[in-house]
From TrEMBL:
GO cellular component, one term: plasma membrane
Family: Belongs to the binding-protein-dependent transport system permease family. OppBC subfamily.
Taxonomic lineage: Bacteria, Bacillati, Chloroflexota, Anaerolineae, Anaerolineales
Alphabetical list of SUPFAM superfamilies matching this protein: MetI-like
Places the protein is found: Cell membrane
Residues that span the membrane, as ranges: 42-62, 115-140, 152-172, 184-203, 238-265, 297-317
Biological processes, Gene Ontology terms: peptide transport; protein transport; transmembrane transport
Chain coiled-coil ranges: none
CDD domains reported for this sequence: TM_PBP2 (cd06261)
Membrane topology: Multi-pass membrane protein
Protein name: ABC transporter permease
């Protein structure tokens, strides 16, 4: 005779056999296949890989130290220009010329990629963690918890992001926090504090649409804890939108760092050749703006790099959206 305990055990085993991990893995593999069939996304991935490798191995790829001052070689034009607008002749050793102090522009741009890549990925990771947790709790709990968290989200969302970044950098720049990692810690914190609201709203919407599904009800019936339901069943089924929004967040962080650096509020320039973070593309844009007539490539090269990396992430984000959208299944 089958007992109630045996019946519950059998039901639990069936639920485990139909765990969401397998279809979710199939969905992700199918999404990866569809992503790699998108030519624009592949080009974007290649560009991102080039910049990441260039940032990691800048000390091997850079022809000069980014802080090396070459006496008498200030404002040299790029090697592919015989004579620059200032009348100076180019030097083949400096592919993109030099700045006002004779520092190699290409080397400084390669080292500047380190800051932009880190600023793109680290704050985005923090934003995803905070936004996902708040969205999960808000959507799953509902009631006064949902109302409280969403009102906090609305308040944070209403505050102008760029203004908040500027206030934080100006106020705390000369404090102990502002000096950590040459100012990168303060920059990470500023970017993450007010940028999680979009992720929280997306995750909350996903949770609201999933928490009444049959497989969630089945998990409740077998006594699964709320934390397991949220992180083992609901979260894996919400990964598609989270992955897409993360790909769109990274270029936003890079642009924000470039803006703050251009305003003189970004990374503190370092004069120690052993430092991993020495300069940033935003700082190079500020330097190039003052020398646009004497050495245009001092401004153009970091500007082109920012444009390329943002465009690459946009291609990848669009490709991920198409690859992970279930409504497009079978159309590619």
């Amino acid at each position: 005779m089958t007992t109630a305990h045996d019946s519950a055990t059998e039901t639990k085993n069936r639920i485990a056999a139909l765990e969401v991990a397998t279809p979710q893995r199939d969905l992700l593999m199918d999404g990866l296949y569809r992503l790699l069939r998108n030519r624009a996304s592949v080009v974007g991935l290649i560009i991102i890989a080039i910049f990441v490798l260039g940032a990691l191995f800048a000390n091997f790829l850079a022809p000069f130290s980014p802080i090396q001052i070459n006496s008498g070689k200030g404002f040299l034009p790029p090697a592919f220009v015989e004579v620059g607008p200032n009348g100076y002749k180019s030097d083949p050793a400096f592919l993109f010329g030099t700045d006002t102090l004779g520092r190699d522009v290409l080397s400084r741009t390669l080292y500047g990629a380190r800051v932009s890549m880190v600023v793109g990925f680290v704050p985005t990771f923090i934003i995803l963690i905070v936004g996902t947790v708040i969205g999960l709790i808000s959507g799953y709990r509902g009631g006064w918890v949902d109302n409280l968290l969403m009102r906090v989200t609305d308040v944070v969302y209403a505050f102008p992001d760029l203004l908040f970044f500027i206030i934080m950098m100006i106020t705390l720049r000369d404090t102990f926090i502002g000096q950590m990692l040459n100012g990168l810690f303060l920059l990470f914190s500023s970017l993450a504090i007010v940028s999680w609201v979009g992720v929280a709203r997306v995750v909350r919407g996903q949770v609201l649409s999933l928490k009444e599904k049959e497989f969630i009800e089945a998990a409740r019936c077998i006594g699964a804890r709320d934390s397991r339901i949220m992180f083992r069943h609901i979260l894996p089924n919400s990964l598609g939108p989270i992955i897409i929004i993360s790909a769109m967040t990274v270029p936003g962080m890079i642009i924000t760092e470039a803006i703050l650096g251009y305003l003189g509020l970004g990374l503190r320039p370092s004069t120690n050749p052993k430092d991993f973070f020495i300069t940033s593309w935003g700082s190079l844009l500020l330097e190039g703006q003052t020398a646009i007539n004497a050495q245009p490539w001092l401004l153009l090269l970091p500007a082109i790099c920012v444009s390329l990396i943002v465009l690459a992430f946009t291609f990848v984000g669009d490709g991920l959206r198409d690859a992970l959208d279930p409504r497009l299944q079978g159309t590619q």
